[in-house]
Specification:
This protein has 552 residues and is mainly alpha-helical. It has helices at residues 2-7, 9-36, 48-55, 57-90, 96-108, 111-122, 127-136, 146-170, 174-182, 187-216, 219-224, 231-240, 247-274, 292-319, 336-343, 346-376, 381-391, 398-409, 420-444, 448-456, 461-489, 495-498, 506-515, 519-544; strands spanning 91-92, 288-289, 322-325, 328-333, 410-411, 414-415. The radius of gyration is 25 Å and the shape is globular.
């Protein structure tokens, strides 16, 4: 029996996948932890960097700032998303598909592009700021700092709650709603006591996703923070700051970030288990017509919120065609910004984006198929360990992953810094969870009897896997792969640590152009990046067919 187990092909696959994760994830994280406790002279063990962090209020305030703004963003995202999701799921709203697609587009674009657009709209010299001041004499509050981060991130991340809760509301059985109404529980009371209680596991999952994304977001606080320091920005500053670099201290801060996010993840898992139950909507909720004043208010709220959320993307695309000179936009329209971008690095950025993205996506799809099958069909302690390791990057800031990769592969025997390989590794590690979760969810819906029937008809296990199992998983794999692709092409926080001029992609080209005051070419880069994202979303919606298939 033991000999047979050693020769089992899937056992060998488990060992190979585990070895890969140990190399590309555990080894870099261990190396970063090691660097955080090595003395400045390179000899001996020390905790001086952790002592420096916890003894200085400057660094503690960065953690507190991150928690403050992230909690506020999460709460505000839930507050504005729940009514939208309720209207969308329980009422017939004309143009509902437009609302869904626009919300998906808003949350899948690069966060820092939204931050830049809001600066152009509500900054000190922003279009809306100047218009309100000139036309009405009203001074709009400063967008920079805490308020600006809250605005940008909330409008960026609330669609995640909206999309999650749509699925939860559709799974509520209408008989439960009718029974509660017969017992005198209706309206707002029924929403909070029945609807929200049944949807709590999904809400907690959405809250975790928003919290982690807001906590790990680098581009937004970097662009509009103006002194409001957050954890990811502080890590970046310590590692590549112009004033002074302290790699050991940056590694220590990164280690603390991992511990904090892991604790939050475990807390969410505990809370979810408290509300764990199963429910099948044998009689789905029947949508009502949105009529009268109440219906008008629903339309106003839904379309106004989506319009504001998608405004930054639309405005940046508009600016791409405006004439510009350095940091200033002038009257008139032309393709000069695109010509300037072409003269600079547009072709290289597009080439690198596609090359890095395709390579990373190919690896992600292969690993996701194998991991999903191991978790669902070959469940064991080893399979669960692999699944857990694959999800670790889901809860880590991108800057932490970037630093860990440099620590691990920046010196002999691995010298990968400045190469396409390390950029691809970063993308694979950070964006794999999307496809794994989607592929796993799809495989769980496929009965084992399908594969057993194939084997009983004489097909080998390998042939059954490739000819039966993988094709049946295709919808989950492809929908997850498109989401991974969109996340890949808009990746910033890890790439900013790892890139150089040769590996520059569209995201980094946009970010560096903004920082250098070349706003016209920056908008041209952003337009191309947005076009790729839109095309990806169209493909995704064609593959999923229905919002029910969304797996974020």
């Amino acid at each position: 029996m033991k000999k047979g187990k050693r020769l089992d092909a899937w056992f060998i696959v488990k060992l190979a996948v585990l070895a890969l994760f140990l190399l590309i994830l555990v080894y870099p994280l261990f190396g970063m932890l090691k660097q955080s406790v090595i003395a400045s002279d390179g000899n001996g063990f020390t905790l001086e960097y952790f002592e420096k962090f916890f003894s200085n209020s400057y660094y503690i305030s960065a953690v507190l700032n991150s928690f403050k703004v992230t909690l506020a963003v999460t709460a505000f995202s839930v507050l504005i998303a729940l009514p939208l999701s309720y209207f969308y799921s329980f009422y017939r709203i004309k143009g509902a598909r437009i609302i869904f697609v626009a919300s998906l587009m808003a949350c899948m674009s690069a966060p820092f592009i939204g931050a830049y657009a809001w600066i152009m709209l509500l900054g000190r010299s922003g279009v809306i700021t100047q218009f309100m001041k000139t036309a009405f004499g009203i001074a709009i509050p400063n967008i920079y700092g805490f308020k600006g981060i809250l605005l940008v991130q909330s409008l960026k991340f609330f669609p995640l709650i909206f999309i999650y809760m749509n699925g939860a509301f559709r799974n509520i059985d209408n008989t439960l709603m009718e029974a509660s109404e017969n017992l005198g529980c209706s309206g707002v009371k029924r929403f909070f006591t029945i609807v929200m209680s049944l949807s709590m596991p999904t809400l907690l999952a959405g809250i975790l996703l928003v919290f982690m994304r807001a906590f790990a977001d680098f581009g937004t606080p970097m662009m509009i923070g103006e002194g409001y320091r957050t954890f990811p920005v502080e890590i970046y500053t310590q590692y590549v700051g112009e004033v002074g670099q302290n790699h050991n201290f940056a590694a220590a801060i990164s280690t603390i970030a991992i511990l904090i996010t892991a604790a939050i993840f475990l807390l969410q898992k505990w809370a979810t288990n408290r509300f764990k139950f199963t429910i099948n909507a044998l009689h789905p909720v029947q949508k009502k017509d949105a009529k009268g004043i109440k219906g008008a208010l629903m339309y106003l709220y839904s379309y106004a919120l989506i319009a504001v959320a998608i405004l930054p993307n639309v405005y940046v695309c508009y600016l791409a065609f405006r004439n510009s000179s350095g940091p200033m936009f002038k009257e008139g329209y032309s393709l000069d910004n695109f010509r300037t971008a072409l003269d600079k690095l547009l072709l290289r950025a597009v080439k690198n984006t596609l090359l890095q993205g395709v390579l990373a996506l190919g690896i992600i799809i292969l690993l996701s198929i194998l991991i999903a099958y191991l978790v669902v069909r070959r469940s064991s302690a080893l399979s669960n360990t692999i699944d857990t390791l694959s999800m670790l990057p889901y809860i880590m800031p991108g800057t932490v992953i970037g630093i860990a990769l440099i620590v691990a592969f920046g010196a002999k025997p691995w010298v990968l810094t400045g190469t396409t390989t390390i950029m691809v590794l970063n993308l694979v590690i950070r964006r794999m969870p999307y496809t794994i979760r989607s592929a796993t969810a799809r495989l769980m819906q496929i009965p084992m009897s399908m594969e057993e029937a194939s084997i009983s008809l004489g097909a080998s296990k390998v042939k059954t896997f490739f000819r039966i199992t993988v094709p049946m998983m295709a919808s989950g794999i492809l929908s997850g792969a498109v989401l991974s692709w969109v996340a890949i092409v808009t990746e910033l926080s890890g790439a900013i640590i790892l890139y150089n001029n040769k590996t520059l992609n569209l995201t980094m080209a946009t970010y560096t152009s903004i920082n250098r005051g070349k706003y016209g070419p920056a908008c041209a880069y952003a337009f191309v990046l947005t076009a790729i994202t839109v095309i990806s979303m169209i493909v995704y919606l064609k593959l999923t067919k229905s919002e029910d298939d969304i797996q974020l």
